[in-house]
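Q: I'm writing a short explainer about Cytochrome P450 for a general audience and would like to include a description of its predicted shape. Could you first generate the structure from this sequence?
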Amino acid sequence: MLFLQGDKNNFTLVIAGLVAIVSLAVWSFTRHDSREPPLAPVSIPYLSHIIGLSRETYNYYVNLSKKISSPIFTVSLPGQKMYVVTNADLVQKVQKQYDTIAFPPLAAAFSSRTAGTSEASSQAMKRDNYALVHVSNDILTDTLKPGENLDRMNRVMLGEIGRSIQALEPAHQKTVRIQLNKWLRETLTRATTRSMYGPKNPYEREGVYDAFWDFEGGLVALAIGILPSIVAKTAVAGREKVAAAIRNYYKEGGLEASSEIPRRRYDIAVSHKIPESEIARFETGMALAIILNTGPATFWMVLMAYLAPGLKEDLRGEIDACTKTAVEKGVITKSLDILNLKESCPLLLSTYQEVLRYFHVGTLVRQVTEDTYLDQYLLKKGAMVHMPSRTIHHDPNVYGPNASDFVPRRFLPSEKKNRPKDHCFRGFGGGKHLCPGRHFATNEVLATAAVFIARFDMDPVRGKWEMPTGFNSGSAGQIMEPDHDVEVDLRTRDGFEDVVWELRLKTSDKIFAIVTEDMDEN
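A: Of course. Here's the predicted structure. Afterward I'll give you a sentence or two in plain language.
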């Protein structure tokens, strides 16, 4: 204080010096080496990228990739350099260099910042070369692979979905009006979290569901970490409410009847000496992985059945053919087995894959942990590697001249000769950190969409079907969120009145492959 009062000129010089030092640090990091990937063309350095990412969001990299022929290019922002990989073959090579182009440092930083954990807990994530990050991923991979634990979770999930759809059933010759995306999101959130956490599911406590979506809406501000209590006040409040519900869940013995996942995650965190209150904070991020994408994927599945000419009728033909009907004491029961759906409904599965291709807006992000080469390109330590799926999925050189069209039959077995190599499908990421929940998500989306399509007829309240835009999709989700909901009048399909529906799952440890890594397993 004496210095500030006594010599304003010196103070000005110090500030000027600090600005110079910061500027030099930014310049030294962002200056371009000729061995690095070529710079993306810009009209105004730094600013053009900031404006482009803000305005065009997930389409910015797609548009940039059209202006540069290189399979990887450099995007420089103040203080941060990013390498954007737009070629599927090169993405495969990135995935093989997982030690030097790594995921754990980002996972640890993102989890700690968004969860609001203490410095001690944040350091625990980094110890022993991010051992806790690695083992947490191993737990998810092990518990969500086809087998007994996944089957148990699937049966709980299917039971919840079945009850929700049965409760939705309109009275005879009546309609029920719903917001399609809202109803699906709420239903699948409840089914997914109940299958994960058991009957004491913390997300079913009053206000927790809404608090989670408040938390999700402020993830970017939380991840940046600059004054989150001010710039992300609503998100912080939502996170605290969710964390409190999870702490109560632990105290009330909720883990005793949960799936293996939260129990094993809790035990491994305790073994790393993380206190229970902090474990609850880390667990708030778990819902981001298990909730965010199945709702919008199911929404687009159901909506595209009505928007794509003839698709609803063809899908119904497949689903009806593998639906079993039984009559007992005058009660008609129709049952759908999920394994049969996946094995006997190729158009349903193809439509699902096309939803994941067409509506995928996710970007895999890795951090360069030391100077390394990717093919002939030098990648500098500290830079980020971005791998946006959309640059591959919507590239006419990869998926043909109709890459920007929704083609539900694109992934039929008969169309394989017209498709690119299997690793060009990036619906679940890939490599060492391939989405571990892909089997559960596939079962949930296919089951819900199949029953909706087979059981109900829908009419748009606005009078015609329209495709919502999805420019405001959240930062953490991989599947495009509609900018506005679609309000529909729902009625029972003719000839299906007074029918009880059952969703079933035969015991199976078969790996049903829709990504190249699973094909290698079979």
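A: For your explainer, you could say: Confidence is low (pLDDT under 50) at residues 1-25.
Q: Perfect, that's easy to follow.
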